[in-house]
Amino acid sequence: MTATERPLTQAQRQERLDAAYRYCAAVNAEHGKSYHLATRLLTADRRPAVHALYAAARTADDLVDHPGADPERDLADWSRALLDELEAGWSDDPVRLATVHTYRRYRIPVEHLVDFLAAMTSDLTVTGYADIAALDRYMWGSASVIGLQVLPVLGTAPGVSREEAAPHAIALGEAFQLTNFLRDVAEDADRGRVYLPADVMAAHGVTREQIEAKRYDARFRALMQEMVAIVRRRYDDAAPGTPMLAPESRDCVRAATALYGGILTEIERADFRVLDRRVTVSRPRRLGIFARRLASAQAVRLRQRRA
Asked: Which InterPro entries is this protein grouped with (predicted)?
């Protein structure tokens, strides 16, 4: 702030914060259609925080996936600004402002943000992973902590601690991330990165060069079939966590799980042909899932009002 600028009034600060959250919601709606659809099932007080966390993750990811002249510096500058602003409690950037407010409101540990930013930074230099254990270490920052960030926003059921629900939140974050990896094999290869474990690829006789050349064959099909099974087990690990959440948040998670899990089904229906196309869940299917979960969410809120 310069000497000629006046401090913002409380009303002006609230106006900017509201605008920041609206901006994050627009980012979510544009880039994460399935995720955004699921967030509409959340209560109005929780929804903006989830949009903020999504927008922050998307912004950092875009600095890596759609780089400027100096992506390492751009990401470092953005990361440093966010961490400084988190301590200060304010930002003039809409995504960072909403993220700062969300972190402080829900007392999300800053370590989750640090680990996420470290994972994004590694994407600038790491191009592959030797095995599932190595991929899991990467996903701690890129996916696991996302689940842990969202957990305080969703809330837990009476008598359930965050610590009890945390392993399932971690598993769901990983399941979503792995689903994206399988859907985006070709897109990631174009950026010079392969998120399929090298040892699993080798076991099926699939090489990195084959993926980069987008050559589909029986070996690639078998590789993807095994990877889909691995991802489904992560969804199974996550499933016990949904009943641990606050009742009014469960339908959002169930919808997101059905929407992302549906991508795996569509990959199977495409006979695992993901090298020459981007598999998606159809709009009628997405809306059908949303409608079913909406009816359930409305019933939960009605019961809560009557209680």
From this structure: Isoprenoid_synthase_dom_sf, Squ/phyt_synthse, Squalene/phytoene_synthase_CS, Trans_IPPS_bact-type, Trans_IPPS_HH
Asked whether residue 281 falls in the same domain as residue 143, the answer is: yes
Residue 143: name the closest of 171, 167, 108 by CA: 171
What SS3 class is residue 20? Answer: helix
Same domain, 169 and 264: yes
Q: Is residue 2 part of a domain?
A: no
Alpha carbon distances (Å) from 168 to 61, 101, 104: 24, 25, 23
* CATH number for 139: 1.10.600.10
Looking at the fold, whether 91 and 239 belong to one and the same domain comes out as: no
Indicate the length of the chain as a whole number: 307
Q: Are residues 188 and 303 part of one domain?
A: yes
Taking the whole predicted model, whether its pTM rises above 0.85 is answered as: yes
Please list, in sequence order, all residues whose beta carbon lies within 8 angstroms of the beta carbon of residue 212, skipping any fewer than 6 positions away.
189
pLDDT digit string (tens) for the chain, length 307 residues: 444 567 889 999 999 999 999 999 999 999 988 889 999 999 999 999 999 999 999 999 999 999 899 999 999 999 999 999 999 999 999 999 999 999 999 999 999 999 999 999 999 999 999 999 999 999 999 999 999 999 999 999 999 999 999 999 999 999 999 999 999 999 999 999 999 999 999 999 999 999 999 999 999 999 999 999 999 999 999 999 999 999 999 999 999 999 999 999 999 999 999 999 999 999 999 999 999 998 888 888 888 877 6
